Amino acid sequence: MQGVLISCLLILSFVSPCLCFRWSNFGLETEESTYNVLDYGAYGDGKSDDQDLSGDIVAAGMNEWGEDKLHLITVSNVSSLTIDGGGSIDGNGITWWEPCKDCQRPCILYFYGCKDLSVSSLTVANSPGFHIPINRSENVKFINMTVTAPGNSHNTDAFDLWDTKNVVFEDSITAVGDDCIAIKANCSYINYAPGYARKISFEDIILINTENTIIIDQHYGTRNTHKDATSMPVSDVTYRGFKGTSHDERAINLNCSINGCYNIILDEINIVSLDPKKKAQAFVTNAHGKVHNVSPEVSGMLE
């Protein structure tokens, strides 16, 4: 499928016809009722044009899902796709987070194998699991996005990238229960495992009471740092134009493996602790790069 323009993002809901949604702008009898989109002209066959309906989507609760709990909406192997939103998708995660901490929880909007993808002006909230995973895609833009979930919603990353390159995030707000943007194996410009992460820039970001504000952690999930000699290589990462507050004292944490992270740039950064009685701090281990005009003070950066 090529050259697709979706003027109302909510059309994508019909990719999953087995689910029910609540339409707040559809003019039905009450906002508090649940309706099946198939009853209102949707086909969900991946071919029909369902764009006549518009509104805000609320996904069905946990007990209403069938056996497939992977993704609410999947966009797979599409080129030149533009999604211009204005609406919202609520994953109804509150029905999942407590009773399903250790079981499979679906993502809201999953992109796989997409090229030249643009998503803008969309609100995605309260995903049971990750909000927007992107896998094996290229030339991707997210503009004016809002992705939110409560701070105690476990593992609700806003964006997760795997094996994806040339990704841009602009003018967006993320506030979730885990990572705002998680960059995982085989990503570049943003083979055999564990892959790599390189040529990644974070610029002009406002921070409000954040945790793990600036972090590279190559020891994630292991207590023995010597096992991380084969961890994913990280290089050419720039953090520029950060300002705001950190919930914890560890505002900057570059925790690289014994092989090191290279060409890490910290430039024009001002992060203070939300608690005026505490001082924000920076911790650096085995990171190579440059520091310019950064607060809290960064020591230990290797050349």
Automatic annotation (TrEMBL):
InterPro entries listed in its UniProt record: Glyco_hydro_28, Pectin_lyas_fold, Pectin_lyase_fold/virulence
GO biological-process terms attached to the record: carbohydrate metabolic process
GO terms of molecular function: polygalacturonase activity; rhamnogalacturonan alpha-L-rhamnopyranosyl-(1->4)-alpha-D-galactopyranosyluronide lyase activity
Any single Pfam family the record assigns to this protein: Glyco_hydro_28
Secretion signal, residue range per the UniProt entry: 1-20
Subcellular location: Secreted, Cell wall
Gene3D superfamilies: Single-stranded right-handed beta-helix, Pectin lyase-like
Record keywords: Cell wall, Disulfide bond, Glycoprotein, Glycosidase, Hydrolase, Secreted, Signal
PANTHER family: PECTIN LYASE SUPERFAMILY PROTEIN-RELATED (PTHR31736:SF19), PTHR31736
Protein family membership: Belongs to the glycosyl hydrolase 28 family.
Protein's UniProt name: Polygalacturonase
Organism: Lupinus luteus
